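Translate sequence into structure tokens.
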Amino acid sequence: MRPKSSSGLTHTAFDTSAAHAAYNLLLQDFLAERKEKALALIPDDVLHALPFEVLVTEPATQTEVQHLVKSHVTRYGLSLQSLHQPQAKQFAVNSFLLIADPQRGRTLANWTAATQRRMNSNALPGSKAELQAITQTVKIQRTLAGTEATRENVLAALPDCDWLHIASHAASEAGEPLFAEILLSEMEATEAHNKIYAFDIFRMHLRAKIAILSGCETARGLFLNGEGFEGFVQAFRAAGTPSVIASLWSVDDMVTAKFFQQYYDALSRGKTAVQALQAAKLEILSNEDNSVLDWAGFCYYGYDWQVQLESPNNAHRWLILEILLVALTGGGFIYWRRRTRSSV
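Result follows.
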């Protein structure tokens, strides 16, 4: 299909026949006996690398492809304990931390040749667009962007947030799951000080209910037979964050900005955290200029949440209401005083 502009990725034709055959093999009989439209899956072995929403439920036609995402909302887990949940839990966001648009400029000399081919480490234009799109949709309590998105600032801020969104380059090296990394601003001479690693997260105690990692391959790492990928998803869950949204592959950053604008818009309309991810996928899927690569790689791991997010204009609305209340109270007092004097 079309070439990718900002990330250098190219899209190849999607094999709908293979996707339909995989659906018949993995899910058809199971879903035929059930009316539920919410799936909680624990993949086995190499299936950890498959986003099930991309499977095709009906033979494809020339005009339409029935991906599973159109009929079911899906979340993933590493164990039954990580998925068991009768209904979405209520959650009011009070401390939203957004980390985006880190200041970057030079190529990382200590990356392997494979990683250098997979991505470059310069600034992501889409990360800034993602930051702007999110701040226009929901109220952010703290933003670390540009020169403020440093390792020191990020590690200090992580324990205090209850909602985390990181929009930055990420990479994972085969065989080193604890050294999966998210790139931050280049403020130090030593490159190791300009990123955070999975092992940093493993040894923290976090109170964030959800961590959204929109960078490339944040769901990947060392593949452990029967356990899936060892990396950032497991690190955040071990640190106390029960829900993670991460990507299985490299994603175009400008499309990702649009994707998460749709995600937060769906949350603000009352969708649960998992339902909002489905809504964002469907929105990107509806544009024929986009590819399966643009939406299918984002996976939801862990508990679902019924989220209450404050809109960015609410603070102004409360200020206006307070001013009106003071004005009305003052006006009422003046009127009362005048009536009292006139009666005397």
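Note: The domain at 89-272+301-308 is CATH 3.40.50 (Rossmann fold).
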